[in-house]
Amino acid sequence: MEVFWSNTNEFFPFFQELAPVSNVERIVYVFVCGEKGTGKTTLIEALLTTHIADPDLPSFPFLQEYTYYGLTERTVLRLVELKREHLYLQEIKELCTHQKHIFVFVYAIDDLPSICYLKTRWIPYAKRLISPGILTAVVENKTDLRSEANRNILSSEFTSYYESSLGMNYTWECSALDRQKVHQIFLQLANLVIREFDLQ
């Protein structure tokens, strides 16, 4: 199935208008997890070309930012930034029960504590939520490299851990300030979701 986009500008060819809720068959949640300072908010903001607040779609108090993008005419992507890993566990678990969703884990390659927090906080939290079939991915974010004196974390240092703990096999490295690359990452995620739906 092809991903249908309409051009808004060079980097963000997302739907400007979505079909009415009654025509939407699937809502896919992308939960973006990570500590403050890893650049996850910047990653999200790079994609926020339009806010579409629809009263017929549910809203939740644990959402920091949200928007909707049309993946196809009848599939909607809802991008979510999770702010606190220990809140609203049951509510998120209920969202993940019957749909295909994605958990994206973000860490800063120049900030060792950010990868430690993924191991000790976000991944254990997600393991209580993720059911078989839910996609998981890691974004190794260069942020804005303010800590250039720090040693960059190599992908290989984390690969074995996240593969063994969650079975994640999608990983990308980019800068949150590189909007074109950010767009490419989420476009790939969109295609992965649609492929999973088509296999059902």
Low-confidence stretches: 1-22, 49-65
Seen as an oligomer or otherwise, the chain set is single chain
Order of helices and strands: EHEEHEHEHEH
* Amount of beta strand: 15-25%
The helix/strand class is alpha/beta
Mass-distribution shape:
globular
CA-based gyration radius? 16 Å
List how many beta strands DSSP finds.
Answer: 6
| Sheet with most strands: strand arrangement | 2-3-1-4-5-6
Number of helix segments?
5
Please state the average pLDDT score.
64
Helix content: 25-40%
The main pleated sheet reads as: 6 strands, mixed
Q: How far is the first residue's CA from the last residue's CA?
A: 13 Å
Pfam family, one: Ras
Keywords: GTP-binding, Nucleotide-binding
GO molecular function, one term: GTPase activity
